[in-house]
Amino acid sequence: MGFHVEHPAQVPVFIIAWLLIVKERWDFCPIGRTAGAMVMGVLTVIVQTLGPEEAFDAVEYGTLALLWGMMVLVEYLKDDALFDMFVQKVFVKNKSLTPVRLLWLVSISCGALSALFTNDTMCIALTKTICYVCTQKGFHPGPQMVAIAMSANIGSGATLIGNPQNAIIASISGVPFAKFLAFSCVAAAVALVINTAALAIWYREDLQENTAFAAAAKEKMIESGMYGATETTEGGAGEGTALLAGSAELEGSSSSDDIEGNTICCFLGPYSMETQRKIFRKLLIFVIIATLAGFLADLDIGWCAAAGGLAAMLLDAVINHKVPDRIFARVNWELLVFFSGLFIVIEGLQHTMIPGQLLDEVDDLMNVETLSGVCAFTAIITVGCNIFNNVPLVLLVGLASSYDDGEGVELKFMETIGDPELAWILLAWVATVAGNLTLMGSVANLIVAEEGKHYFEMSFPYYSKFGFPITIVTLYVGVAIICGLWALVY
């Protein structure tokens, strides 16, 4: 079968969409990723690559439901100051911290929490707090910022809810949550240890107490108007609220507690506000555990996450008598809209038959049941992620059809390169960890650089000189662990 292109008008649509994705805003057209993806999605219909119904069908609503539900649960955790309590106990009030000990605490905490509550969320929640702790204790924040970014990506690879590309894989692959966890969790744990140990060695000169650096950083914060927002007295009651991302979100949650009187009535009777908060906190934790149990029980992952988020809203309304408007306002609707447009654009590109035909040329080379195939698969996906970005790459590969039979579509590409479930698990791992190669490789890295810029300018060379080589190591170590465990079990 010769190379054949259907709907050629879709090719420039995809190229423009890709250009809008790889850079947040272009000076000549600062439309941004979200609006750009939607415009290109509409153009996909206008050029008749997809019909209106096909475009709606192209949207993976299970992925959107999963992301929405997890966003809501995370916002309730922030609203109830549970993240605050964690960072206070582990970081802010920890009197035995040394730079190296802090590095290990940051890596393990960020990796574990990212597996449950997504990498981007943890980068936002922890970066300013950790940088503030470094400034107060005379530590260089640079190694800690690198640790947050890289550990968030590695840890998020352990579960199907750890990052957006894994959420997409959860929706389209059919791999059970528990099976994915069993293989990827081990790989993530080992990679996290290797990465942190390497960090401690590579940045050993920066992992010394440096009061002069801390004083300079504090002066920079004062000049930027940040220091007053985070400085508190020793053991001050308001310390955690100001520290956690220095966030207006938490300030907003405090203002929402301004309820007249000191008692609240729900259908169970009147309670003091403190008792009411404790009841809600315990029920919120129960909802989160129940949601995770639903994932492990192989319930529909999108509906399960959405149900968890809605259950938290219902409990908040019944027990706290709060409307959910503040939670809706904090949900990252732009991300959901961006994904909707991207799904349509990628489905349009699949209709051109280009991705499937190109991948058919390398399907034998990428067979995940052979050593050479696994190495080639890892290398090709890594390069692809750093060209197209990991989310579009996962959609391109995951939704591509195989045309090798010459008679039409019978199989998806992922079904032609060995065991499909192993291929999906490897795709998730490689697409996630490949983001650690360079500072520009993932959104999580850029979030850390932006959130911590008033404390330390994490430059491209500072990050990438370490990130590039160690990522190659952790990528292939993780792949070897996943394939080794797979061979033992199957």
TrEMBL record:
Membrane topology qualifier: Multi-pass membrane protein
Residue span(s) of domain Citrate transporter-like: 18-397
GO BP field: transmembrane transport
InterPro entries per UniProt: Cit_transptr-like_dom
Main location: membrane
Transmembrane segments: 6-22, 34-52, 58-77, 98-117, 180-203, 279-297, 303-319, 331-351, 371-401, 422-448, 468-489
UniProt KW keywords: Cell membrane, Membrane, Transmembrane, Transmembrane helix, Transport
GO cellular component, one term: plasma membrane
Coiled coil: none
Cell location: Cell membrane
Domain of life: Eukaryota
Name under which the protein is recorded: Low silicon 2-like protein
